[in-house]
Amino acid sequence: xxxxxxxxxxxxxxxxxxxxxxxxxxxxxxxxxxxxxxxxxxxxxxxxxxxxxxxxxxxxxxxxxxxxxxxxxxxxxxxxxxxxxxxxxxxxxxxxxxxxxxxxxxxxxxxxxxxxxxxxxxxxxxxxxxxxxxxxxxxxxxxxxxxxxxxxxxxxxxxxxxxxxxxxxxxxxxxxxxxxxxxxxx
Length: 186
Known about the structure:
Strands 1, 2, 3, 4, 5 and 6 form a 6-stranded parallel beta sheet that branches. It contains 6 helices and 6 strands. It is of the alpha/beta class. α1 (about 15-30) crosses α6 (about 160-185). The protein has one domain (about 5-185): Rossmann fold (3-Layer(aba) Sandwich), CATH 3.40.50.360.
């Protein structure tokens, strides 16, 4: 059985309806994974412990919201510290080679915003090159991303119907991620 590490990059996971719902649905579907919550480590990653988790995993999942067309600064800082030269890439850096790399994320904007000529100017795929490059540099197998658009919900501001839709969409996202991980683990 393949070992799965899910790295949650939301800086305030307890306040995130979308990302919290995805992780709950993933767990409810019976996925066997280790969860590393970067919001609990903050900007002081436990490099050796986290590298040991990465080395032990066969499948590495990044679960996060899109912030300013990329991953949150908390997760970026973690990658900068933990995916170190000599560990993840470069001379002797083969610890991640051959591992499957799955990104799973949410956006606040609707899908229609991610198109040429739309508010964000590009299709979503144009914003993912950095993850493809991380995988290539580290010798990981980049898997097709799983993502859900339109996940913006602000308690006390957004209508209850938005909350219900976000929960429904993110439960489906978590179920899809569970199915993908089951396929990758074979």
